[in-house]
TrEMBL record:
Catalytic activity: a ribonucleoside 3'-phosphate + H2O = a ribonucleoside + phosphate; a nucleoside 2',3'-cyclic phosphate + H2O = a nucleoside 3'-phosphate + H(+)
Entry protein name: 2',3'-cyclic-nucleotide 2'-phosphodiesterase/3'-nucleotidase
Family note: Belongs to the 5'-nucleotidase family.
Keyword Cell membrane listed: no
RNA-binding in keyword set: no
Single GO MF descriptor: metal ion binding
Localization annotation: Cell envelope
Domain Calcineurin-like phosphoesterase positions: 56-299
Length: 619
């Protein structure tokens, strides 16, 4: 494999620009962009001092299958409390404006991963009508049209298996970079580690190296798809290996595109020797890097400067917000001294996509795909006798999560027939992924069900003891903040407790509710008790659960592989793993049953209490 690719100078300046110069300037100003003095256009001449040149690198990350400003689960235009807009169609307009305002040279455009998973649009072209030689992935079509120069691999690129990822890779006109995605047999890079792009600024020709790094957590989160095929060493280790090689290959500037957050937290505890969020460590510990486009954390960092320990030089980090809400812009100035370019300054900022219209060319290219998916997600597959909502699922027992648990446990129980585990009681876990998820009374569509389970997780069954069940629930109960005694509390005052691994608060998806299939699993969570001693009265079918009791637990692949660092699951015996997506199981269950009748499966099996007194929680 050619691990040191070099490409010709970018020709993006010749791509259509649907926006005039004055309109481009106005659009960028509205989006919050302020051009540094050295980067203002000179209409074909070098920028700034005759020995200096400035160029721009634009960046996106965590696009997660968003092309349009559309919420497929709501069947409406996307909106949130901050009134962000999403999608590549808006990003394309911003990119066009930057190219129009930066007449010479055209900015480079890179991405930091998590591209092909996350929306119904992405799911449809992975599972319903999978991409092929004749079916092009909408993200490939859009990113090719916009003119990306490179993209790093994200962990969610591996959700649908390596064969589909390879098909997507072949459909892209730009390289997918992954220096730390290695072939498990040969130890060699399974994807190009880096690419070197030539940027012409007046009489200057600057070689810009782009190194792609992905997340070691792939080995845990997508174990079923990658085990024995690929391995994922640490970002710091691989950057230290490749950056000197990029410099020797002629890179004047080194930009890292890293699918790894800037803050050094990790969701998988001690399961891997490499941290999940290591972008700042890469900047600090690996000399020779000028800037890092950060991804994975779904955070917004306009600019953060980290000092490299060895060289004392600043390294600029920037992370645009997820789903195409923001576009990062890195302005890099170099000076030529004795025949070599040296970076003299780097600055970064983010542009807001909600200030521009969608690019009509991207809309035209993807309209048919979008309409196909809208029709798919709105197709009616059953009815519900009453409405179910997940709005309160993080602090009280709801029919919505019981429904997920009933379907998961039922699928596992059916699969155990004829196996040594047949006859064991089956439990199931589910998390309140989406507070806005709701299934209405009456007709139920694909999107109603899909909104209840927004991740592409697959289902497994594992054997656990009664002691392990209790320990698992104690871990889950870390999600709650302590209370002094009985009373009425606001939801925000008891949920999302900070922990050592989640200092900003435990996310909803790391709180699990556990339920039984043929008999109820009942328990109280005492918020006046210390963490680790909160589960009270754990019983199955009214009988206290003993330490040695044996159960089969229906669990998703994220949890089973170590996501959230729950105890007892990664080493538990796997008794079922058919690689079936839970969301599809829910859709298939409704299609087959025709009717969702919550009273047949929902009752209050767990409570938040103070001592023995139930707490009242208000939304």
């Amino acid at each position: 494999m050619n691990t040191t690719p070099e490409e010709n100078p970018s020709q993006h300046v010749t791509r259509r620009t649907l926006i005039s110069g004055s309109a481009a300037a106005a659009a960028l100003a509205a989006a919050g962009y302020a051009a540094p003095a050295a980067a203002k256009p000179k209409h074909g001449h070098g920028h700034g001092h005759h020995d200096s040149a400035t160029f721009t690198v634009l960046g996106t990350t965590d696009l997660h299958g968003n092309v349009f400003n559309w919420d497929y689960f709501k069947n409406a235009e996307y909106d949130d409390s901050a009134h962000n807009d999403i999608g590549l169609a808006k990003i394309s307009t911003l990119v066009d404006a930057m190219r129009r305002s930066h007449t010479y040279p055209s900015p480079l455009l890179i991405d930091a991963g998590d591209t092909i998973q996350g929306t119904s649009l992405a799911y449809y072209f992975a599972k319903v009508e999978p991409i092929s030689r004749t079916v092009i992935h909408p993200m490939a079509r859009a990113m090719n049209a916009i003119g990306y120069d490179a993209a790093a691999l994200g962990n969610h690129e591996f959700n649908y298996g390596i064969p589909l990822l390879r098909r997507f890779e072949r459909q892209c006109d730009f390289p997918l970079l992954g220096a730390n995605a290695h072939d498990a047999t040969t130890g060699l890079p399974a994807f190009p580690p880096f690419v070197i792009k030539k940027v012409k600024v007046g009489r200057h020709l600057i070689r810009v190296g782009i190194l792609g790094l992905t997340n070691p957590g792939i080995a845990i989160w997508d174990k079923a798809n990658v085990e024995g095929t690929m391995v994922f060493p640490g970002l710091v280790e691989e950057a230290a290996h490749w950056v000197p090689r990029m410099r020797r290959a002629g890179a004047d500037v080194v930009i890292v595109s890293a699918h790894s957050g800037a803050d050094t937290s990790s969701s998988y505890g001690d399961a891997l020797p490499y941290p999940e969020n290591a972008a700042s460590l890469v900047a600090e510990q690996v000399p020779g890097i000028d800037a890092i486009l950060v991804g994975h954390a779904h955070a917004e960092i306009a600019q953060r400067v980290v000092t490299n320990i060895e060289t004392g030089r600043p390294v600029v980090l920037t992370e645009p917000l997820r789903w195409g809400m923001r576009l990062s812009a890195l302005d890099v100035t170099v000076r030529k001294t004795r025949g070599r370019y040296e970076v003299t300054s780097v600055s970064a900022q983010v542009l807001n996509a909600n200030t521009v219209e969608e690019d009509p060319e991207i809309v035209r290219l993807l309209r048919r795909d979008h309409e196909t998916v809208v029709a798919y997600v709105n197709s009616v597959i059953g009815t519900a006798t009453e409405a179910m909502s997940a709005a309160t699922a993080r602090y009280e027992d709801t029919a919505a999560l019981d429904f997920i648990n009933v379907v998961q446990a039922g699928a596992v129980k059916d699969a155990l027939v004829g196996s040594p585990s047949e006859g064991l009681p089956v439990l199931s876990i589910a998390a309140p992924f989406n507070r806005e998820a709701a299934i209405p009374a009456g007709e139920v569509s694909v999107r109603d069900v899909a909104g209840l389970y927004i991740y592409d997780n697959t289902l497994l069954g594992i054997r656990m003891s009664g002691a392990q069940i209790a320990a698992y629930l104690e871990k889950s109960a870390e999600y709650f903040k302590a209370v002094p005694g009985p009373g009425t509390y606001a939801a925000g005052d008891v949920t999302n407790a900070p922990t050592a691994t989640a200092p900003n608060g435990t996310p909803d998806y790391n709180y699990d509710v556990m339920g039984g299939l043929d008999a109820p699993l009942t328990y109280d969570i005492d918020l006046t008790a210390p963490v680790g001693s909160r589960i009270v009265g754990l019983a199955y079918g009214g009988v206290p659960v003993a330490a040695g009791d044996q159960f089969v637990v229906a669990i998703n692949n994220y949890r089973q592989s170590g996501g959230g660092n729950f105890p007892g699951v990664t080493s538990a015996e796997v008794v079922y793993n058919a690689q079936v997506e839970i969301r599809q199981l829910l859709i298939d269950w409704v299609s087959a049953q025709g009717v969702i009748d919550p009273p047949t499966f929902h009752q209050v099996d767990w409570r938040l209490v103070a001592g023995s007194t139930p707490l009242t929680i208000t939304g």
